[in-house]
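The instructor's notes for this session suggest beginning with a concrete chain rather than abstract definitions. Hand out the sequence below and ask the class to guess, before any prediction is shown, which regions might be ordered.
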Amino acid sequence: FFGTAVLGWPPCQGKVDTLGPVAGSHDGAEVLGGYLLVTSWSDSSLFIPNPEGPVRLVSGVNSPADIGVDPTRRWVAIPLFLENRVEFWQLPAR
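After discussion, reveal the predicted structure:
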């Protein structure tokens, strides 16, 4: 939540890689269609980390918390923590 990078590592390897620079205050993370989806409170978004910068899929979501995905229909449930509600977004096929 307090970092400005998303980190990852392959199984059985000790090397940690930076998946990309991002705004910070990350809360939710899920894999959908081979992509890592992450939420950020700092810029109110859902994005895919990328070495060149985040690929924003959804923006303008206040306090996006831990997310849930429906991989068959490509739906993402984004709880808006401070608003006490959940928004559902359908993502395009990539």
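Then share the key points. The chain has a mean pLDDT of 90. Strands lie at 5-8, 17-21, 26-32, 35-40, 45-48, 55-59, 68-70, 75-80, 85-90.
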